[in-house]
Amino acid sequence: MNTGIDYGAFEIVYLDPPWESSQWQQQGPSLGNELLGPFVAELLRRQLALTIIIKLPRQADIDKFDSLVGSRATRYAVNDARKGTLSYWLIVYRA
Asked: What is the pLDDT of residues 55-93, one digit of tens each?
C-alpha cells in the first residue's frame, strides 16, 4: 500500500468516510478506491499516526471493521440530543 506519506507520524488523523456508498454493504467503508480497514491497519503498522479517529454510521459493524484493522477500537456513541437515539459512532485506534 502506498499512502504517499513519508515524513513522520501525525499526532491525530480524523477520517469521516462517505456513508452512502455501494461498497459499505459488501466491503466496508472506503476512501476513494482504498478500503478504509486495511488503510488504517497500515497507518498503525507503520506508525504514521499515533491516534486515528473515525466517524462511522450507527449501523456500522464495528467488530467486522476491527477485524479488518487487526486491532480493537475504543468506541464512543454519539447520541442525537433531541431524539435520545444513537446518531453515529466515533471509534479510536491508538498506535
From this structure: 998 888 899 999 999 999 999 999 999 998 999 999 999
Q: Which residues pair with 57 in a beta bridge?
A: 88
Q: How far apart are CA 64 and CA 53, in angstroms?
A: 17
This prediction has a pTM of: 0.81
Q: What are phi and psi of 74, to 5 degrees?
A: -80, 135
95 within 8 A of 50, measured Cβ to Cβ: yes
CA distance linking residue 82 with residue 50, whole number of Å? 34
What are 75's strand-pairing partners?
91
Distances (CA, A) of 54 to 57, 82, 83, 91: 10, 23, 23, 5
Place of cell 472506503: 30
Alpha helices in 1-95 (DSSP H): 23-26, 36-45, 62-69
